[in-house]
Amino acid sequence: MQTPPEHAYPTHWEADVVLRDGGTARIRPITTDDAERLVSFYEQVSDESKYYRFFAPYPRLSDRDVHRFTHHDYVDRVGLAATIGGEFIGTVRYDRINEQGLPAKNPEDDQAEVAFLVQDAHQGRGVASALLEHIAAVARERGIRRFAAEVLPANSKMIKVFTDAGYTHKRTFEDGVVRLEFDLEPTEQSMAVMRGREQRAEARSVQRLLAPGSVAVIGTGRTPGGVGRTALRSLLDSGFTGRVHAVNHAFPEDLQRLDPEDVPAVRTLREITDPVDLAVIAVPADSVPDVIRDCGEHGVQGVLVLSSGYAEAGPDGRERQRALLRQARSYGMRLIGPNAFGLINTAPDVRLNASLAPQMPGAGHIGLFTQSGAIGIALLSGLHARGPGDGGIAGISAFVSAGNRADVSGNDLLQYWYEDPDTDVVILYLESIGNPRKFARLARRTAAVKPVVVAKGARHNGTAPPGHAVPTVRVADSTVAALMRQAGVIRVDTVTELIDAGLLLASQPLPAGPRIAILGNSESLALLAYDACLTEGLRPQRPRVLASAATPDDFRAALAEALSADGCDAVVVTAIPWVGEGAAVSPGGSEGAALADALRTAAAAHPEKPVTVVHLAMDDLAQTLAAPAPAPAPAPAPAPAPAPAPSAEPAAPTRDEAARPEPAARTINPAPAPAPPIPPAPSHFPRPPVPTGPPPTLAARQATPARDAEAGIPRRPRREPLRIPAYPAAERAVRSLAEAVRYAAWRREAADPGRVPEYDDIQEAAAGADIERLLDRLGPDVSIGRSVPVPPQDAEALLARYGIHTLPVLPAPDPDTAVRAAARLGYPVALKTTAPHLRHRPDLGGVRLDIAGEAELRRTYAELTDYLGSPEELRPVVQSMVPRGVDTVVRAAIDPAAGAVLSFGLAGAPSQLLGDVAHRLIPATDREVAEQIRSIRAAPLLFGWRGSQPVDTAALAELLLRVSRLVDDHPEVVGVDLEPVVVAAQGLSVLGATVRLARPPATTDLGPRRLPVY
Fold first, then answer.
1. Helical (H) or strand (E) element with 579
2. pLDDT band at 431, cuts 50/70/90?
3. Would you put residue 163 in left (φ > 0), alpha (ψ -120 to 50) or beta?
4. Sign, Cα dihedral of 476, 482, 484, 487
5. In this structure, are strands 570-575 and 515-520 parallel, antiparallel, or unpaired?
6. Are the C-beta atoms of 966 and 764 separated by less than 8 Å?
7. Is the C-alpha dihedral spanning 1007, 1012, 1013, 1014 positive or negative?
8. N or C: which end of the chain has fewer CB within 10 A?
């Protein structure tokens, strides 16, 4: 077959992939220039592998073989190669065949024969599996639906590559050969296999960076100071357990060891005889390419580039950064940076501080990723201030500040932390999201087992920060926030909120519900906490106020009683310095330390419920609660009422005693409490209901945690020693607690996310045929990334294939035509303008309703044209009246980075001005759509607000699901706009609809795994 001219070298097939061991390789089409590479590659393959490939001894390739394997038409014959350092390490090719297994002559033949060959030194690294994913995607793009492969029975590794891929396959044995045939249509199993391989490979690549056996600091200064020498000093001061080398081409030739650090000093990596796992690069940007080359030739696994002068420096720097990434990946290395702040691993068997941080953070269970070095410093400093030292409440497991994040990003860290047993909470500060679709997928999976807390900078300027060469995301930040909520991400706004939420989630179990007990020795502080709970959508109980002279024992007893109550899900303790006589504090001890011991004792008896503390002028209390402490003694049995202190009045005064000053404890009623209904919280998740059953806790540190049958959330026992977060303001404590409540509710719901319904009347195949005809008819106006509107009649027909029926609209270019249209539809009718500047603007008078007869229609037509313009300008139409209801808007759109998004809101200017629109990722489930409808602030209008009749939200949910199915089934549909959709008490009516089509991109997040290139 002749090569069609439009099928030139397909650059979009090129991809960088992470292999099973964490290294990288480049996959690209084989070209005619690869003859020498192919011959060299084949010479390094063992005789056994050659025998398995050709079923006979085949010591060398003939010139004819080389020509055949390097000349492809990229349609019926395609070859891909996996390369490292520019050299082949594996190849795959397919040839289109007919039903008889002969070379195809008909372009309609949809089967191909596929064969692999992997260099022996690289077998077991997942090269063949990665090649299979990419060659399958190429084949689908070229209209091939099935692969066939013949394998010798002894070649068990290759048989396993095919059978483990997850495709639907058939296996036969004939003439001593195993024949495998499998469909290339992605299945749920094949997608799961691909995602699992992606996760393990990318997690392994991060693990190699965080736990190197040896580190070389390249660019170590000859004198103290400077970036390189500072990084070396941090590495040594942290107690790194591996080998360290200082590298600088300017070192004197006779220098053997660097003083005063006393580490080996070399001029180049070639002088190091041992392997180097991580290279920390601190040389000028112009010298970095030579260093990367040396690292690649030495077999370095990963590089951390502290050097600046890249994309943050302008267009030239951006090109320099892209070249750096290409060079690093060509050698199979992962790259952190450039312009990075560094990375830290506090694991006792590693103790790595390859950063510019002046001190090693305490070890703990918070994973921390930032793109900004300044924010990284702020977070490390803030955490250190809240709980210094190993085992403190603010300890971290790992820290990465990726700078321009040309390669390693937050997505890679999510892959690693997903099953890292030493990380319980993930904190991310992001200034840009290069692949929001993948981020949402990874964050949702990680959030199902451990909290993910995110703050995003650069939210409002619409551009990425300097140095972040990412694709532009057209969706608004509110949409990105909604997608994060759907993925279970806890979205906060500030660095302080990142720390506040992270500390509570890392140290406390998840609350079972929103019922909050408040107690303390300050009525004002308790009222502030109460008000904050209402603001956040929680359900606070009446605060219990202890006497100002209440002792630590009073606090212990009150906290124990609150925790033992069935109607309490969490407790907020407020504390101020107390006054009064008596032995409240042991000699030599501080009041804060004594109170901390009392609170720990009470909380230890109820490890399933979270406790948080608000304090004023009691810094020693916060420090003691945050620091490691001896395991608490067994808690005494909770008393039915607080025990009175020696100098305090009875804890539960009678009516006659109520007038006495300073009771030991009293309950205040700040308002009709609880205050129903509580307004929706301005938060990331809907206000959760009060659940039943055992309360949930954070995920166990095991990779496969046990599940609580009723709560549906992984559980783990509280770690000892017990640590309780303390906050200097009630609002901060309650906000963090509210985030935990909403996250716990999401975890329960995520256990049963709902389903994507099947509708019998959907005509998926017919709709696909309609779309193909429309794309062919629209011709060159439609391309990848360029969409065009579908003519109205064709749009109505396409929507009808999915059970979405629009109300007929008849043009009315003059009064007589309008009268005939109304007679055809039947009175009453509506007369509307469709001019772009008047569309969906009833406030301008372009819509006239309930026209009952011909005379009224002619009069209205004249008024409309006299007031707004000529018929040619207004483009009036006539439409039947529908039952009154609530006007809504349903939209679906595809962003190249965020993916397909389903949007819903009420029609009209107020909703647009307030941004009252709810978004969900497509495909949406029935549960997600039901929550989407209720999540907008104007939702009460749909459910009978102020005595109005509730509308048919079930019909509205079905419409949303049908639109979701249409866009999910057909990636060519890049936009659907239904406006207005009038939802009545029974049923709904779609009054206007537009559809946009575009050629789908060749690869998406649903395609084969690949590293991003910005």
1. none
2. confident
3. alpha
4. negative
5. parallel
6. no
7. positive
8. N
In angstroms, the CA 824 to CA 805 distance is 19
pTM: 0.83
The residue that leads in pLDDT, 4 or 21, is 21
Beta bridge partners of 336: 304
When mean pLDDT is compared across 538-552, 574-588, 788-802, the lowest value belongs to 574-588
Angstrom distances, CA of residue 900 to CA of 489, 888, 934: 19, 20, 21
Residue 697 pLDDT exceeds 60: no
| 838 compared with 7, residue with greater pLDDT | 838
Q: Which stretch of DSSP H or E encloses residue 864?
A: helix 854-868
User: What H or E segment, with its residue span, contains residue 876?
Assistant: strand 876-880
Residue 846 has pLDDT above 90, yes or no: no
Q: In degrees, to the nearest 5, what angle opens at C-alpha 166 toward C-alphas 163 and 168? A: 85
What pLDDT is attached to residue 694? Answer: 36
Q: Which strands form 146-151's sheet, in the order they lie side by side?
A: 15-18, 24-29, 77-84, 87-97, 111-118, 146-151, 177-183, 169-174
Quick check: 112 pLDDT over 70? Answer: yes
| Helix (H) and strand (E) counts in the chain | 27, 40
CB atoms within 10 A of CB 555: 26
| Vertex 408 angle, CA 407 and 409, to 5° | 110
Both tokens of 467, joined, read 């140095």
Residue 89 pLDDT class (50, 70, 90 cuts): very high
pLDDT at 837 over 50: yes
**Residues 81, 125: Cα–Cα separation, whole Å:** 15
Tokens of 610: 């979270």
Q: Answer for the pair 518, 543: CB distance below 8 angstroms, yes or no.
A: yes
| DSSP structure class, residue 650 | -
Question: What is the rounded CA–CA span in Å between residue 626 and residue 613?
Answer: 11
